[in-house]
Amino acid sequence: MSKKPLTAAGNIAGKLQRKAARRARWAAAVTEEGVKDTMHATRKAGEGVRDHVINQAKGVLKAVRRPLRRSARHRHQLKEQQEFNRVEWQVEEEVERILARGRPLVAGPWLSEVGFEALYWVPFLRWMKAAFNLDPDRVTAVSRGGVAAWYAGVASHYVEIWDLLDPGEFARKNAARGVAKHYERSPLDEEILAGVARRIGTGDFDVIHPGLMYRLFTLYWSGQRAMGFVDAHTRFAAVAPPSIIDRALLPAEYIAVKFYAARSLPDTPAVREWMRRTIAALAERAPVVLLDTGLVLEDDHADFDVAARGRIISARPWMTPRDNLGIQTQIVAGAKAFVGTCGSITWLAPQLGVDTSALFVDPKWLHAHLPVAMRAYHKLAAGRFSVADLRAVDPSLG
């Protein structure tokens, strides 16, 4: 019997077997994928339910926590506000307690910036006088540079710090305080106050310390109080200048100028060149009297060096540490206009009735002070006060 039919039959059987196997594998695969799809769908549905439940729970929690957070913020704001109010009340109560004792008073000593003395400290003392009916005869002001005229109407007596301490010694001891602002009494304060006691013949007095003013107005400078807060605690008035130097030393008509290096007007080559051109241009209109003292006594401000020639006159030869600010006050008061770095004696010039141009290139340190000055001088009907950012004139100065 031939083997070929058997082989053929075997082949056919093998094919059928393999086909059946493929079908079985396909069916199994389809079933497995179906199971997987079903499981995946079930899992997704479960996740959807879970997410929905979680989101619903989050919504409930947010709804509950929102008023709690609002309440917490409100409590925090109230606590802050109470603390600010406490500072204000403590200062006012301390002032009232000091004045109620009826003893002689020493206002000072003033150890920090000239600008803060003119813009805040003296107006603060005027407010005290008005608010508490303070008799100026009780008050001795203590400052430096011959500024007794600034305190007229507030303090009937004045003690000059340079009569008590050498300027160099003062500068060293003042630097040792470590801060520019005068919030607390220091060993330098005590030394000066001991000298004041010797000058006035008694140590039986109370001290109205500048720290009271600094603590109070920090509420404004830090943004916790509006400008009206400063209005309520200051009184601005016209200042009558002293007569220290012979008026004949000055031109009949002149422009007073004081440019010094400061954070608002830094000492850079571009600023120096612009300043020299400006002084030359002013000198074409009228003689210019430079309030350069050659002294660095009050703070870290140093005058720009400008050659005095022709119609540009330096007041330096007329000044000593003891009277330099008094002489500057007299010169500014007699000028047809004042131009200078925004700060320091620039805050005083409008109170002397003189039109003033205050210049700067960096207003960062001036934002709080400029509105106070502009509002005060407008209400006082004093000299006109204009400010200029020199970067608007010459961008290279920025």
Record keyword descriptors for this entry.
single chain; 4-stranded parallel β-sheet; 6-stranded parallel β-sheet; alpha/beta; 398 residues; Rossmann fold
Put the structure in a nutshell:
With 398 residues, this protein is an alpha/beta fold. It is built from nine helices and twelve strands. The strands form three sheets. It has a six-stranded parallel β-sheet, sandwiched between helices.
Structural features, described:
- The protein has 398 residues and is an alpha/beta fold.
- It folds into three domains: 1-100; 103-232, no CATH class; 247-397, Rossmann fold (3-Layer(aba) Sandwich), CATH 3.40.50.
- Helices cover 49% and strands 11% of the residues.
- The chain has helices at residues 4-100, 114-132, 167-176, 187-200, 210-221, 227-232, 269-285, 324-333, 369-380, and strands spanning 105-107, 139-143, 157-160, 206-208, 255-258, 260-261, 288-290, 302-303, 312-314, 337-341, 356-360, 385-389.
- A six-stranded parallel beta sheet has the order 9-7-5-10-11-12, with helices on both faces. The protein has a four-stranded parallel beta sheet with strand order 3-2-1-4, with helices on both faces.
- The longest helix is centred in the first third of the chain and has 97 residues, at 4-100.
- It is elongated, with a radius of gyration of 39 Å.
- The termini are far apart.
